[in-house]
Amino acid sequence: MTSFRLRDRDAVLTQEGLIFRVYGYTHPPKACICDVEYAPASVFESEEPRALRQRGGQIYYKFYSDQGLRFVLEKYPQYTVWHAPLQTRFVGVHLNQITEIRRPDETFQKMLAAQPSKSDSLHQALQTLSNLMLERVGLSHTDLGVFGSLLHGFYHPRFSDLDLVLYGGEKLRKLRETLETMYKKWSSPLQNEFETEEAVKEKTRHWRFANYSPKEYCWHQRRKTIYALFQDKKSGRVIKTEFEPVKEWGEIHNEYDSRTRILKKGWVRVVARITNDNEAPFMPSIYGVEIKRVLEGGKADDVQRILSYVEEFRMQAERDEEVYVEGNLEQVITPAKTFHQITLTYRPRYYEQVLKVTQL
Predict the structure, then answer these.
(1) pTM given for the model
(2) CA dist 201 to 67, 126, 350, Å?
(3) Cα 334 from chain centre
(4) Are the CB atoms for 113 and 125 separated by under 8 Å?
(5) What is the pLDDT of residues 223-253, one digit of tens each?
(6) Which CATH number fits domain 261-357: 3.30.70, 2.40.50, 2.60.40, 1.10.1060?
(7) All structural domains of the chain with their residue ranges
């Protein structure tokens, strides 16, 4: 493997054809913490109707919910890595287990430069939308990437979404400003996906968050502006479009330190003020906070930050806003300092976790 520089949304493959998504930016040496996203039919089959994917003559299935975690632990425990701070193992891949790396930016540049086939309306729409964003926002083609089915060649030309990566915090700021302006014009080819609560109608049928209503979800998603509907005139289709924030290489700092220990301290509920939202767009999302009231849980009055691995709570709150938070209290002990944080992640009581603005 010539290069092991990896970042969020990059993909790594193993000899079985398993496809993992690199998760975040903090990883143990010569390994990466991942989510397993897809598996070939030779090793896994799913009854979930949405799971089927096809690349050429090969069939793959996508993992949903905790399927991937259970699959790895039961069938491929070698694809776990030791996380010293938490003293536990996470799904992950070691350098010597990687057979291929797929990078969103490299794939995007190839798709932008290639001539789409006449039957590939999604590839054509990607080029149209990308050129629009490059012109309106002032981006370079190296600022964008693709993820999901576009990255892996699984996409269906008439039914798949446009999943784009945007690299860099300053580029994200410009993109959001541009999209907000475009959304205000009825003639714009891009509209906010969450302009009305119709966008969450399907989700409400299977809503599981205990402290976060569909109405609150729609309000928070709407103002993030990164979820759009693209009216593609050529195909006549309205295509769901997402702009996924990912850090530029110069913004990445690997905070992994094997000497750090993170200790679980129980469940907490607090009201807090956001003091820093610079890391909110990325995964994990990090919010500096000042605790205003502790509603449940001890030692929560000196919490310094919220650390969220839950995608729904990315870009959830802005500086100086008051938020209600419910999640896992942790004590972080580093060689330099000790502090507390509230972590939202994939653990028991997952759907009781919440981070939301108190005044909508």
Answers:
(1) 0.94
(2) 25, 27, 22
(3) 27
(4) no
(5) 999 999 999 999 999 999 999 999 999 999 9
(6) 2.40.50
(7) 11-102, 104-250, 261-357
